[in-house]
Amino acid sequence: MLQRHRVLTGVVALVITIALAASKLDAQVLRGSRMTVIASSSAARDVARQVMRQSGWSEAKPKQADGVLVVVRSSMYDPLFTRSGSCFCDLRKNAERQPSLSGSKYHIYVYRLNDDLTVTKLKHTTRDAK
After folding, report:
1. pLDDT (tens digit per residue) in 77-108
2. Residues in Cβ contact with 117 at an 8 Å cutoff, skipping those fewer than 6 apart
3. 24-47 burial, b if ≥16 CB within 10 A, otherwise e?
């Protein structure tokens, strides 16, 4: 009985830790944040506009932005592999090299844009392309 209680307590602690980490991640790009958008196709720009509207973000130039929203279309698992600490210009070049015309999913990336214009990846999620 005591062993089962310890396991349950450990599981609950793990769930709480994961939930706190997720809420901290979302808090890093708050509603009302100014975001630079990179989306090289018209369909990707449509998805980016939906995400911006749903998140309560406004668009800004890189030097005034809090973060970067990137949308690309691809069938790859993680088509936009960019290391944290990379500069914004490398992120933009990498995103623009993606074909974005076909693929089963839209990949949506959110980066924090640091004062020195380096980026830190905060989130990567996907949506089915219609």
Report:
1. 888 877 667 899 999 998 888 876 778 999 99
2. 62, 63, 87, 88, 89
3. eeeeebeeebebbbbbbbebbeeb
Q: Half-sphere exposure (CA, 13 Å, Cβ side) for 81?
A: 3
Asked if residue 10 has pLDDT above 60, the reply is: no
**If we measure between CA atoms, which residue out of 111, 108, 103, 100 comes closest to residue 124?**
108
- Find, among 94, 91, 85, the residue nearest to 114 by Cα: 85
How far apart, in Å, are the Cα atoms of 118 and each of 8, 77, 78?
Answer: 42, 24, 20
**Distance between CA atoms of 42 and 98, rounded to whole angstroms?**
14
Q: Report the amino acid identity of residue 16.
A: I
Distance CA 78, CA 107 (A): 8
Give the per-residue SS3 of 51-65: HHHHHCCEECCHHHC
At 116, list the tokens.
């020195």
Mean of all residue pLDDT scores within the chain:
80
